[in-house]
Amino acid sequence: MIKFDAEHGAVHYPPDRRHRLWIRPSILIGTGALIASLVAAAWIEMAIAGLPHIPPVPLAYPSDFAGPHGFPLWVRYSHFFNFLFVTMLIRSGLSILADHPRLYFNDDCTPNSEWIRLTPLRVPSDRLWTAKDDARFLTPLIGTPGYRHTIGVARVWHFINVHGFIICGLYFVTMLFTTDQWKRLVPASPTVVLQAWNTWVHYATFHLPAELNGFYGYNALQQIAYFTVVFVFGPLAILTGIAMSPAVVNHFTWYAKLFGGRQSARSIHFLTMLSFLAFLVVHITLVVMTGFARNMNHIVLGTNDAGRLGIWLGFVGIGVVVLCWIAAHYLSWFQPRALQHALKVVAYPMQLLTLNRLMPQQTYSEKDISPYMWPNGKLPVRDDWKHLAADHFRDFKLKVGGLVENPVELSLADLRNLGELEHIAMHHCIQGWSGIAKWGGIPMKMLIDLVRPLPEAHTVAFFSFGEALYGGPYYDTQSLENVLKPQCLLASEMNGQPLPEVYGAPLRLRVENQLGYKMVKWIERIEFVESEKKLGAGEGGKNEDDEYFDLLPNI
Ligand SMILES: Nc1nc2c(c(=O)[nH]1)N[C@H]1C(S)=C(S)[C@@H](COP(=O)(O)O)O[C@H]1N2
Ligand SMILES: [Mo]
Predict the structure, then answer these.
(1) Do 161 and 253 fall into the same domain?
(2) Measured from the CB, is residue 375 less than 6 Å from ligand 1?
(3) Distance from Cα 84 to the centre of ligand 1, integer Å
(4) pLDDT band at 62 (very low <50, low <70, confident <90, very high)
(5) Interatomic CA distance for residues 508 and 494, integer angstroms
(6) Is 81 among the domain residues?
(7) What number of CA atoms fall less than 13 Å from residue 65's CA on the CB side?
(8) Cα of 157 to ligand 2 centre, how many Å?
């Protein structure tokens, strides 16, 4: 593990390292009751009728076997790479979750409405408690990268690996259906369900059913389990991942509703991860219990004998995967900038072609407005801001300049005279929480028409009165193209009231096709520039510079 000096240790290795898990009791009891009743039903059936007979699944018997034999090379490789990608996704996903360690089935994310909490802390009601204050950290034994709030780098791993996971999955399914291997996984008759139940009665009452040779076919319960993992959990994980994209959800509002809302999609995304984990535990246990050496030869070598080679090579394979976790951990701490750029190479061109083309067009109504909105960021401490705030920003002048024909200084009243628009929108924070609010202000397009950017101006930079998490003024940039999209506002009102101080007074940005950190609060001035590379560390904003966040977070 990495050694930190005292200064870095204070940031990277926070003193409160308690891990706690709380689950809403009704959910724990409900889940427990469901599992207990399935087990009880199995015992009752055995007590009354005895152990059910499991007829040999005809396809699965070597003697009259008609289906696919063994595991071809492509199955074995896909299996290995899938294991690598899924474990990387789980480890980085857990790190992302730790950044807002609460899951909800409602889109408001009001504290105490969560169904699961991975933090020992309750949200205090007597002082300002931001979502950043609430962020936790994981031990690197569980999460990538581990140690502290590192969502930027965790997202890099998540998004790079998801490309691998999807490519691997598409390859596997294509090969499955262009050969006869699909017959292993796809239940061909309804009797499979009955046989799966009978097999469950065996397992649940601690009887191992007569073991079929997996080289030739699976038992009915196994077939249904594999089918569900490949054709239900895999796609569901991908689809609910997409349902967390602000660009998608703020264009196709119905899409998140398919999953019961944006936070419900996030919860289901987590539950698919738990299902993968549960599957992994049972799968590995049964591989070990039902003829370990022979099974490992099937999986690793594609042979059907009882030699030890498969076991040894299998352990080498697992060792390679663990080495990848360790390498990812060290790369995260020593080469975060290179990782950030690597994701940009992979994702940015695709985003410009796809997600970033979606126009925000949210149609929420007043009744959707969240009763609570998580705040984020540090309230400005500068004297000039405090003086302006004390006088309700009457003397505030927004400075708009840089590469423009007509630089201006505008008071809030001047801005209001330019024209005002309102929309009700869902805010998506990179950390995972959301909230719906009504925003009022001047569309950026009107301001742009007024100042007339020069042809070489491609980027708009927003500078805040406030400081960033690790000090230095907060700023962020947008492409000119994105601020010209609908629903992009310089907001001075929230839910029909002047913008409250905590939420960014006097002005904040709204760009609804992106994540929250792009929406600078407490805006002091706006500058049109050639490119984001001229500002700060050149990555496009304070979070991009310091925390390795994406330049264009459409997801
Ligand atoms: N100046 C400034 N603006 C900021 C931040 C900040 O730390 N400083 N945090 C950003 C983040 S991460 C989010 S999610 C939103 C939060 O907006 P809210 O407090 O209105 O919910 O503000 C964004 N704007
Ligand atoms: Mo955020």
Answers:
(1) yes
(2) yes
(3) 35
(4) very low
(5) 10
(6) yes
(7) 18
(8) 19
Mean per-residue pLDDT, 75-83: 98
Average pLDDT over residues 77-89: 98
Give residue-wise pLDDT tens across range 197-235.
Answer: 999 999 999 998 887 788 888 889 999 999 999 999 999
Quote the domain boundaries for residue 205.
Answer: 21-120+151-355
User: Residues 294, 373: one domain?
Assistant: no
- The DSSP line for 181-247 is THHHHS--STHHHHHHHHHHHHHHTT-PPPPP-TTT---HHHHHHHHHIIIIIHHHHHHHHHTT-HH
**The pLDDT of residue 147:** 82
Q: How far is the CA of 326 from the centre of ligand 2 (A)?
A: 28
The domain spanning residue 494 has which CATH number?
3.90.420.10
The overall average pLDDT reported for the chain is 94
Closest Cα to atom 2, ligand 1: which residue? 521
Cβ–Cβ under 8 Å, residues 209 and 221:
no
The alpha carbon of 431 and the centre of ligand 2 are apart by a number of angstroms equal to 6
Over residues 488-535, the pLDDT tens digits come to: 999 999 999 999 999 999 999 999 999 999 999 999 999 999 999 999
Tokens of 49: 């009728």
Rounded to an integer, the average pLDDT of 422-435 is 97
Indicate which residue's Cα is closest to atom 6 of ligand 1.
377
Q: What is the pTM of this model?
A: 0.95
Taking the centre of ligand 1 as the mean of its atom positions, its distance from the CA of residue 208, in whole angstroms, is 56
- Inside any domain, residue 115: yes
Q: Tell me if 138 is assigned to some domain.
A: no
Return the H-helix or E-strand segment holding 49: helix 25-49
For ligand 1, whether the C-beta of 295 sits within 6 Å is: no
The first and second tokens of residue 216, run together, are 């030739």
Give the number of the atom of ligand 1 that is nearest the alpha carbon of residue 515: 14
Is the CB of 379 inside a 6 Å radius of any atom of ligand 1? no
pLDDT tens per residue, range 369-411: 999 999 999 999 999 999 999 999 999 999 999 999 999 999 9
Are both 253 and 388 inside the same structural domain?
no
522 touches ligand 1 (CB under 6 Å): yes
Q: Tell which atom from ligand 1 comes closest to the C-alpha of 380.
A: 1
Q: Is the CB of 433 under 6 A from ligand 1?
A: no
For ligand 1, whether the C-beta of 429 sits within 6 Å is: yes
